[in-house]
Design a protein that fits this description.
It is a single chain. By secondary structure, the protein is mainly alpha-helical. The protein has one domain. It has twelve helices and no strands. Helix 2 packs antiparallel against helix 4 and helix 2 packs parallel to helix 6.
């Protein structure tokens, strides 16, 4: 018999003893027909699209936070532009300069008040978005509404500091703070409500505690309006200090929610690192 010679490159390779890869197993399971190969390729593209969507979502989330932080930073910077060095400072008369500053303390006092208010709003804003796992259009527009009032803070501080204490300037500043505080409270209540935007389940009593904490600021400024009209601007500005004891009373009333938060720090997060890690897992 004549032995048939087969070129080495045409010989069938021996099956490998190793296990097939996941892609090979998937192809074999789906078969080798054209439509099944197309289905396998489509599934691969769908998985890549899902990963791309997750990365795109994280990027959009961070862009919203970066924009918000930029608005806060610009508002804080604009506050100092209203501070003017008295003319006597150019002549080297330091004592006269100090007297002028003490005689007209309105601009510097307005700067201090505005700085404290804006930083307090930033801290609350950071905690709010520490509890958010994803965004939708309504939340973004609510955030824009809140940033509108933050951008208006330097103007409100300028009104407060450019005139001697007057009911009109105190009234204008209080109205801006009422609008800012109500918008921020609405942002928190919408983000942690039944919208499914929070990355973890929020305890209802804890949610109510934070809501009351956010509403105390516009409540105190609302009370200061009739005080300014009846007793004058200085007592009205002094009444703004009620924000501190109001926070203490609210803290005591919701002491159980505060203790629950201490036992489980994952309720609200408050750390961008933890939140970012959670989003990547999702």
């Amino acid at each position: 018999m004549t032995q048939r010679m087969v070129p080495p490159e045409m010989e069938r390779s021996e099956p490998s003893s190793s296990e097939p890869s996941s892609s090979e197993a998937g192809s074999r399971a789906l078969g080798s027909r054209p439509h099944t190969r197309y289905l396998a390729a489509s599934l691969g593209r769908a998985r890549s699209f899902t990963i791309s969507r997750r990365s795109s979502h994280n990027l959009k989330f961070e862009r919203v936070l970066f924009l918000s932080d930029a608005v806060f930073a610009i508002a804080l910077t604009l506050l100092v532009l209203d501070l003017r060095v008295p003319d006597a400072a150019s002549g080297g008369q330091m004592e006269q300069t100090i007297r002028d500053l003490l005689r007209v303390p309105g601009p510097f006092l307005a700067f201090v008040i505005g700085f404290i208010v804006i930083t307090a709003y930033w801290t609350s804003h950071r905690e709010i978005f520490g509890a958010v796992g994803r965004m939708n259009g309504r939340l973004i527009w609510l955030n824009f509404a809140f940033l509108f009032w933050i951008a208006l803070q330097p103007f409100a501080s300028a009104i407060l500091g450019s005139h001697d204490p007057a009911p009109t300037s105190v009234l204008a500043y209080a109205l801006v703070q009422i609008a800012t505080g109500l918008t921020q409270a609405a942002l928190w209540m919408y983000a942690t409500g039944s919208t499914g935007l929070s990355w973890a389940e929020i305890d209802e009593r804890f949610r109510r505690w934070i809501s009351v904490e956010l509403l105390r600021v516009p409540a105190v400024f609302l009370v200061s309006i009739p005080v300014a009209l009846v007793a004058g601007p200085v007592p009205a500005m002094a009444s703004w200090l009620l924000i501190v004891p109001a926070s203490v009373l609210i803290h005591r009333h919701y002491r159980d929610a505060v203790g629950r938060l201490a036992d489980d720090s994952a309720v609200i997060g408050g750390s961008y690192g933890v939140i970012g890690e959670t989003r990547q897992r999702g």
